[in-house]
């Protein structure tokens, strides 16, 4: 799944366009490498997102195309924030 869509489905970032902009600005890293909006993510990948001066690091636990209201919590685990 694309990183921009994953961040939106997992409810880490509210809108896919905002996730795309964050990737374009170099504020999203997948496994330590800058991610483009089309970068594919898989289970086990580590994503780092820089919100202002506060980075957030998460591990991909599941990749789900269609996410129900409460299922997004199972899609990732926070490593540090």
In short:
This protein has 81 residues and is of the alpha+beta class.
Describe the 3D structure:
This protein has a five-stranded antiparallel beta sheet. A hairpin with a 2-residue loop joins strand 3 and strand 4. With 81 residues, it is α+β, with helices and mostly antiparallel strands. The chain is built from two helices and five strands; from the N terminus they run ααβββββ. The longest helix is centred in the N-terminal third of the chain and has 9 residues, at 16-24. Helix 1 packs across helix 2. It is globular.
Low-confidence stretches: none
Roughly how much helix do the residues carry, as a percent range? 10-25%
How many helices in DSSP terms?
A: 2
Percent strand = 25-35%
**End-to-end Cα distance:** 24 Å
User: Which word captures the global form?
Assistant: globular
In total, the number of strands is 5
In the sheet with the most strands, the strands line up as: 2-1-3-4-5
Q: Please tell me how large the radius of gyration is.
A: 11 Å
Main beta-sheet strand count, sense and barrel state: 5 strands, antiparallel
Class derived from helix and strand content: alpha+beta
In round numbers, the mean pLDDT is: 92
Helix-strand topology string: HHEEEEE
List the SSEs and their pairings.
Blueprint: H1 3-9, H2 16-24, E1 28-30, E2 33-34, E3 46-51, E4 54-60, E5 76-80
Antiparallel strand pairs: 1-2, 1-3, 3-4, 4-5
Descriptive key words:
20% helix, alpha+beta, 5 strands, globular, 81 residues, 5-stranded antiparallel sheet, 2 helices, single chain
């Amino acid at each position: 799944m694309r990183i921009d869509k994953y961040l939106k489905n997992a409810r880490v970032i509210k809108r896919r366009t905002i996730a795309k902009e964050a990737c374009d600005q170099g504020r999203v890293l997948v496994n330590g490498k800058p991610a483009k909006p089309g970068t594919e993510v898989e289970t086990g990948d580590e994503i780092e997102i820089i919100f202002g001066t506060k980075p957030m690091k998460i591990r991909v636990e599941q990749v789900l195309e269609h996410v129900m209201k409460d299922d997004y919590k199972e899609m990732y685990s926070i490593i540090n924030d």
